[in-house]
Amino acid sequence: xxxxxxxxxxxxxxxKSQGIIPKGLTGLxxxxxxxxxxxxxxxxxxxxxxIVSHRIPILGLFQWMPNSAHxxxxxxxEIVAFETLVKVVCMDSKAxxxxxxxxxKQDYSIKLLTVMRKKMNKSEARQKMLREQNQPWMRQIxxxxxxxVEPMQGLVKELFELQTCWMRGDxxxxxxFAAMGIAVQVAQRNAYLRGASTWNIKExxxxx
Length: 208
Description:
It is a single chain. The protein is of the alpha+beta class. It has helices at residues 13-18, 71-79, 98-108, 124-133, 136-143, 149-159, 170-194, 202-206; strands at 2-4, 33-37, 41-52, 59-66, 88-90, 111-113. The chain has one domain (2-206). The strands form 2 sheets. Strands 1, 2, 3 and 4 form a 4-stranded antiparallel beta sheet that branches. It has a two-stranded parallel sheet with strand order 5-6. The chain is flat. The relative contact order is 0.15.
């Protein structure tokens, strides 16, 4: 998930690469970076990495990451720690990487489900990956992502009003995002143990 830099000031890439701060540009987060998504376009700010189980609607992980960082590489780093528990992992087209797909499958027995880019499936390895990805049961699992991961990110964003970051700088946002994630996890765990909704946690998280 991408979050705009605190204050909304942006440092255009041309100026940032040259270390030039235009006159009159104040309140700038110099450590924020650029990233792009089809849904939001280009965003200057900070990123977060989220893991959510498809079975239990509880936030598994919510951590800061550079906005410009490669999410698929972060996925591999995080998910292999749970190789005895996780057999299938889903990520959007940012994880369309045949080598990553093969590594997770061969080294950790984890199936990666993603959306493959069109007109990129010329090699035999990618064609094989595409055939496996298109199996009906795998697509059914992937479709659950729209009602697990994406809404969970939306919940965190809504709870903490993360249209923009609260603070400037990598370290400040690192610990702040970690604290947000833990607060949501604790509240959701308590709700789950009570048999209550793990989505309706605003009062417990914010102490209302």
